[in-house]
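The authors assume throughout that readers already know how a fold can be written as discrete tokens. For illustration, here is how one protein appears when written out as sequence plus structure tokens.
>
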Amino acid sequence: MKLTELLERLEYECVQGSVDAWVTDIVNDSRKVKEGCLFLCIKGAVTDGHKYAAEVAEKGAKVLVVQDDVQVPADVTVIKVADSRYAMALIAAAWYGHPAEKLKVIGITGTKGKTTTTYMIKSILEAAGHKVGLIGTIEAIIGDKVIPASNTTPESTTIQKYFAEMAEAGCDCVVMEVSSQGLMLHRTAGFTFEIGIFTNLEPDHIGPAEHESFEEYLHCKAMLFKQCRHGIFNADDRHLEAILQGHTCDVETYGFDKKADFRASEAQLVSRPGYLGIAYHVTGKRNFFVEIDIPGKFSIYNSLAAIAVCDYFGVAEDKMIAALQQAKVKGRIEMIKVSDEFTLMIDYAHNAMSLESLLTTLKEYNPGRLVCVFGCGGNRARSRRFEMGEVSGKYADFTIITSDNPRFEEPEAIISDIETGIAKTGGKYRKITDRKEAIAYAIHHGQPGDVIVLAGKGHEDYQEICGVKYPMDERVLIREILAEDEA
């Protein structure tokens, strides 16, 4: 592709060489440089691509996109920009032929609820006949192809590649999670979202490797609403006014607030042996009753956001009602049927805030006992162990402490730290290091009316020990336990 085509929508200065150069590929990893490629010098958290300028030129890169000065041979074209990450997003969009322009892109941002809401939207739109791509924390879905995710919002080059593949596969829209990091690092630059959704905002992702302050975190979230045509917002969130600052999109709202465009009323918990859900009446721009197979008040918020999106697409109410009842998310309050007497579920809650939210939600269903099986990851903040132990001890009637991803630590040392936290509460607990044994114990000792939650692993299908990821899917473990019981 001609370099001029790649730079068409970008402000730049050609400080060396010619913009008439021909580009064979776009690359931002020095190990993947090919003859005739364009290399993007990106300043990352770990390394700075500008350091490799001479090396990639020697390997055959013919164009360098930089934000700092570099020294390379005269036959290499150097394009200087204000921000090479932003430039990468626009160049990637051009390289793949601006595929987002062939799709209706729906972006969801917020502290919680992004993952579940994406699957709800996908479920309803597909029920209405749309072909929907998905990019999120768990996976990317392109037609029949499923790609495990490593980032909630991938790098811009990956996003544009996925968009191109989705358009090729016949998708007419895509729903994606948009993280604050993704917005801050311009991963979603270079296209306009058809719809942007704001779920909620709580202090999170604040620290040296992420956001310097809550204010920066909020500012990054709000960027989405300067890059979308239509915005859908949680009317009940106390940060709504700040998120709306400087927005350029149309505005619709959802929530319990009487002024919300899509309102929930007459909410009721639904509980049967082996099943928990929630039901409510939708009023405002739509008027119907809906039941969802995912428990908790947050399921109302997530589904209202999905309903607002599908209203924008003109989806019929019967399609919404049927699709919402079938919407499932792997590892997010995922119920696994093992008994007619008690309920077992898997959830990704892996820090104190998410575990407290999960357990307090389940408490509202007045279970016979609330049993929590969890561990903590190794080589992470020790404070998380004490905090999660304290939360489980406080809210669960019985805790089984087990191993999560010990990484390079001894599982027993991690369990001991969790025990320190739980001891503060006087909560009842048992230690079983082997996760399969811990799950088996929970199932074999399940009592009528119990709700048992396996927390921390969620959608993960491995256990990381000493740098090796061993296969371990809790759904498989449960099947093995039940099969062994029948043998």
